[in-house]
Amino acid sequence: MDAKRIDVLSDSTGETAEKVVRAAMLQFPHSGAQLRLHTRVRTKEAARPILERAAREGALVVFTVVSPELREFIHASSYELRVEALDLIGSLIGKLSVYLDRQPINTPSAMLPLSDEYFRRIEAVEFTVKSDDGKEPRNFKKADLVLVGVSRTSKTPLSTLLAQRGLKVANLPIVLGVSPPPELEEANQERVVGLTIGLEPLVEIRKARLRQLGMSVDANYGLKDQVKAELEYAQSIFSTHPSWPVIDVTGRAIEETAVIILESLKEREEARLIAKQIV
Amino acid sequence: MDAKRIDVLSDSTGETAEKVVRAAMLQFPHSGAQLRLHTRVRTKEAARPILERAAREGALVVFTVVSPELREFIHASSYELRVEALDLIGSLIGKLSVYLDRQPINTPSAMLPLSDEYFRRIEAVEFTVKSDDGKEPRNFKKADLVLVGVSRTSKTPLSTLLAQRGLKVANLPIVLGVSPPPELEEANQERVVGLTIGLEPLVEIRKARLRQLGMSVDANYGLKDQVKAELEYAQSIFSTHPSWPVIDVTGRAIEETAVIILESLKEREEARLIAKQIV
């Protein structure tokens, strides 16, 4: 049987379309389907050869195009060429148009002027990269979020993911026997989150890491004891800061932990507002 | 008139759904509509109150839910409560099921085991954050991509964005009169990309930056000359490396520049393969 191919066609960067298709494909594990991304497709001349190839190869086409003319052309061409094509954003734009009682501007997002929110996000990413791994303790008080945890609790990928959402994030590794810098106490304590992880999974991660670095794992008899002492030390720091939520990252995808962190920030914010009203 | 509200309801982290809705909302600028995200909604009991509130407040509901039962429940409840609800991923999953000739597993993505690709992405992010701003020249030869350019050519946000897509990225600032470290020559030259930007826009960005740092802009008479010399110095480095593509980031969103970089890597890869065949 022929290989399955999915052509994703977008008038912008295709990031959104690709994300949706990849999310849907997770529901069909090991399907072996190949995804091909076609970005900045903004004319009939650019779209047509992609559809023709899809017809020849029996590929499925998924598209996000905001121009109604180009959308119509893709629909008509697909019908003519007998290509299965799915409009990913058309019906959403239609519903939004009715609900908001407005006409869409029909301009590809990559051609729109950059928003204030965009520049805030860029600034958040730069802040976050500079504030990784405890490098800028002075930034703790400027941060929207400070993540604290032992090595390999996903601090760096969590920080950059949340930065993409506009949060300025700093993170601080907890190292056995090393007191956190005094700047941590100056941070908004409502904005500090502790990260922890199970002992066994952490031992496994550290072993894999040692192997990767070409070091012998057997040589490190004391690894488990050392990891245990580290986690206990982190716990002792957390227990002197009862206002910090502590999130267990064991077995969780970064994306899920990120959502839990955002929910905990929201809850603390709401609790603070309620407390204010009571006073 | 009431404020417009859009409830985004997801059985996972809601990242994909939020991205799609935000992309569609760009077509309705200044609509003032508020987006509310409801994550990890996996039961009828969790979904019902969200739909009831949407009914009371006349909100639009957009959902991504993989369980057919929960999807059916949301459809039925929306009909009963007269809520406008749009299924964002249902028809895509349906089409994929027919095209791939397989049944979907109907498990929320956040509950699936983490894939190898996921771990590669995490590793890429960690590599990239460590290799920001020329901090780890030793990493140039291990990198999938090395970005080279003067300050404020978006090296950091570009690097982290591409890292989320699984690329190990290192970046190096070009500083007037400072020679790039010898490690740059040891990097795979097919994987180096130069970044440039227009003189005037860069002068504006630098001025804004000085203001932000609380410095007087007037005091810096020579700013424009200095920026010009810097860009010329960068150009002189680029011209001694004709194999590097040089991308102008002026007025471009990070997402768009990222796509251009990916396309240029692909083209060079293809050119190399063709050259090999000819030989």
Helix and strand topology:
Two copies of one chain form a homodimer.
Chain A: E1 5-10, H1 15-25, E2 34-38, H2 44-57, E3 60-64, H3 68-81, E4 85-87, H4 90-100, H5 116-130, E5 145-150, H6 155-164, E6 169-174, H7 183-186, E7 192-196, H8 199-212, H9 223-239, E8 246-248, H10 254-278
Parallel strand pairs in A: 1-2, 1-3, 3-4, 5-6, 5-7, 7-8
Helix pairs in contact in A: 2-3, 5-6, 6-10, 8-9
Structural notes for this entry:
The structure is a homodimer of 279-residue chains. In chain A, the strands form two sheets. Chain A has a four-stranded parallel sheet with strand order 2-1-3-4, with helices on both faces. In chain A, strands 6-5-7-8 form a four-stranded parallel sheet, sandwiched between helices. Chain A is built from ten helices and eight strands. Chain A has 279 residues and is of the alpha/beta class. The longest helix of chain A is centred in the C-terminal third of the chain and has 25 residues, at 254-278. Chain A is 48% helix and 14% strand. Chain A has helices spanning 15-25, 44-57, 68-81, 90-100, 116-130, 155-164, 183-186, 199-212, 223-239, 254-278; strands at residues 5-10, 34-38, 60-64, 85-87, 145-150, 169-174, 192-196, 246-248. In chain A, helix 3 links the parallel strand 3 (60-64) and strand 4. The first copy, chain A, has two domains: 5-111, Rossmann fold (3-Layer(aba) Sandwich); 117-278, Rossmann fold (3-Layer(aba) Sandwich), CATH 3.40.50. Chains A and B meet through helix 1, strand 3, helix 4, helix 5 and helix 6 of A and helix 1, strand 3, helix 4, helix 5 and helix 6 of B. Chains A, B: Its EC number is 2.7.11.32, 2.7.4.27. Chains A, B: InterPro entries: Kinase-pyrophosphorylase, PPDK_reg. Chains A, B: ADP binds at residues 149-156. Chains A, B: It is an enzyme of class 2 (transferase). Chains A, B: This is Putative pyruvate, phosphate dikinase regulatory protein.
